[in-house]
Amino acid sequence: MLFIDATGECIKVTNNNKLTQANIEKIVSVFAGHTEEKHFSHLASYEEIEQNDYNLSVSTYVETEDTREKIDIKKLNAEIEEIVAREATLRAEIDAIIKEIEG
User: Fold this and answer.
1) Same-domain pairing of 76 and 53
2) From CA 38, how far away is CA 63, in angstroms rounded?
3) Pairing assessment for the beta strands 41-43 and 2-4 based on DSSP bridges
4) Tens digit of each residue's pLDDT (9 = 90 or more) over 9-48
5) What is the pLDDT at residue 10?
6) Domain boundaries, position 98
7) Which of 16, 42, 46, 79 has the highest Cβ tally under 10 A?
8) Distance between CA atoms of 69 and 7, rounded to whole angstroms?
9) In this structure, are residues 4 and 62 in contact, taking their beta carbons and an 8 Å threshold?
10) Are both 7 and 57 inside the same structural domain?
11) CA angle, residues 33, 57, 15, in degrees to nearest 5
């Protein structure tokens, strides 16, 4: 059984979704060819469907693409350290200026 997740093919138009001719052609091409495409379609065997307790939900078979932004924690921590060091330097300079003005 071929599962196709075409939710990404829809274009929001006012309150309705619309498929362009290119979207339709892609869906029909995958369907006609019984082809698998990552994050779009999956050809499941009867055994696989049986293992999933006959669940026919598309999301069970077609994994959605992770579009979250990837964050480099090491780089972020290095940037935070630079900001903290710069803040300490500026604080010391401000304190020196204030001491000079006061005194």
Assistant:
1) no
2) 8
3) antiparallel
4) 888 877 788 888 999 999 999 999 999 999 999 999 999 9
5) 83
6) 69-103
7) 42
8) 21
9) yes
10) yes
11) 90
The amino acid at 20: T
CA distance 64 to 60: 10
**Looking at this protein, which amino acid is placed at residue 25?**
E
Q: What is the pTM of this model?
A: 0.59
- The residue whose two tokens read 């698998």 is 36
Query: What is d(CA 48, CA 60) in angstroms, rounded to the nearest whole number?
Result: 10
Q: In sequence order, what are the residues at sequence separation of 6 or more whose Cβ sits closer than 8 angstroms to the Cβ of residue 30?
A: 2, 4, 37, 40, 41
Quick one: which of 42, 50, 33, 47 has its CA closest to 6? 42
Together in a domain, 54 and 90:
no
99 contacts 92 by C-beta, under 8 angstroms: no
